[in-house]
Amino acid sequence: MTQELFNLKLSILEGRYEDALTLVDELEGMSKQAILRNIESFLIRLIVHLIKNQIEEQLTNSWVASISDSILKIKKLNIKDNKVSYYIKSDEWQPFLEEAIEAAIAPTSVEVLNGQLTPIQLSERIDRNQIIMNAQSLLDLTYAYSAKELPAIVNKSLAELPGGQAWYKGT
């Protein structure tokens, strides 16, 4: 990116405004890709814990903290600088979620059921549609609630997952 900024400055100083605008477009594209990569990493982290919840039918404080943090980070990353539009709109998550599930299977297999399942076994056991529905439901909250309200709302939503009531009540 340093080279691109140097070239941009040089283009402006030399009056090559078309070249400068092309470089600005390239820089914007690079920035968006970096943001999407960060969103995807938090999405995978979210999915890992939703898979663990589905297989083990429980929630732990650690999993809830990770899910909640992932949702908060996604909310902050997803909103553009203008504070009114998003990199990923609420109805555009499906392909991201499908990719995240596949990327999450191997790391989850190490953690779920004390590592007893291979990635292939885990892949065969999970209900992808349910995980996508749960993730989409949590992501939808990022469009409806402020960052301040979101943690409490996410906790209430997580209480509806398998084992969620026991976690929520502390039993």
TrEMBL record:
Alphabetical list of InterPro entries matching this protein: DUF29
Protein's name according to its UniProt entry: DUF29 domain-containing protein
> What organism is this sequence from?
Gloeocapsopsis dulcis AAB1 = 1H9
